[in-house]
Amino acid sequence: xxVLCKIMWLAKKIHFSGLLRDALKDxxxxxxxxxxxxxxxxxxxWNSTTMTIGDALSVRPALHALANSPKHKLSRWAxxxxxxxxxxxxxxxxxxxSSHSCITNLP
Length: 107
Hints:
The protein has helices at about 5-15, 20-30, 50-60, 60-70, 80-100. With about 110 residues, it is mostly helical. It is globular.
């Protein structure tokens, strides 16, 4: 599975599962990161993939723990350390692209 597919799938599962949302919140508290819902990418929103990746990176320690938790059976979708690096690099490219794509002077 590609890194992006894994994150999108995890975001979808967490979005639709109260149990996984609560577990992510618990892992955030245990790992010392601020809890944040991972927003899902939407085809009609041009920068929603960037937001999804950014949200995942902001709760990385908790998301990593959740995906690797035997209780939740998400290990198939867990990201390796190398995949997290790729995701961060992708985020940086998309973030620069989205910041330069804004139209500020409309007639």
